[in-house]
Amino acid sequence: xxxxxxxxxxxxxxxxxxxxxxLLQADNFNQADLxxxxxxxxxxxxxGERVFHGGLGNDNGVSCDQCxxxxxxxxxxxxxxxxxxxGKVSELWEMINWCIMNPLEADPLAADDPRMxxxxxxxxxxxRGVKLAPGKH
Length: 137
Ligand code: HEC
Description:
Elements: H1 3-26, H2 31-55, H3 64-67, E1 81-83, E2 88-90, H4 92-101, H5 114-126
Antiparallel strand pairs: 1-2
Helix pairs in contact: 2-5
Heme C binds next to helix 3, helix 4 and helix 5.
């Protein structure tokens, strides 16, 4: 074997080892894990529902549900899309911040703020089963 061939076969072996370890990890959960993950997900959805229904603590007393009862007209399935208010292709959280800054007159939330994650979880959960339609108006 030439030196080059040995290097190639070592690389192939390393690649195969990586592939199988990822495969093993991917399968490495059971029903108890699934139940726990679902429970954690629903905890975040419930927190989002609370924030959506007046739980943000903003001073002007305006809440999301006044204009979007049960997350209606929030169309998470259409993101990312061009949003006129922001003048660019935007993600759902950016539009949520537009509503937080305008009707709610509060400071925007960071994209990874747990309340922002929760709001998105709740909005998406309410629209589960709706076909994805990114970019749609
Ligand atoms: C005073 C009414 C009002 C309140 C309160 C309000 N919104 Fe909105 N919301 C709007 C309007 C108006 C739009 C813009 C509609 C458009 O152009 O798509 C909008 C758009 C949105 C969109 C994008 C909808 C789409 O079709 O792309 C989301 C998501 C959203 N709001 C979430 C929220 C959340 C979360 C809150 C609370 C933090 C909130 N809104 C509070 C009026 C409101």
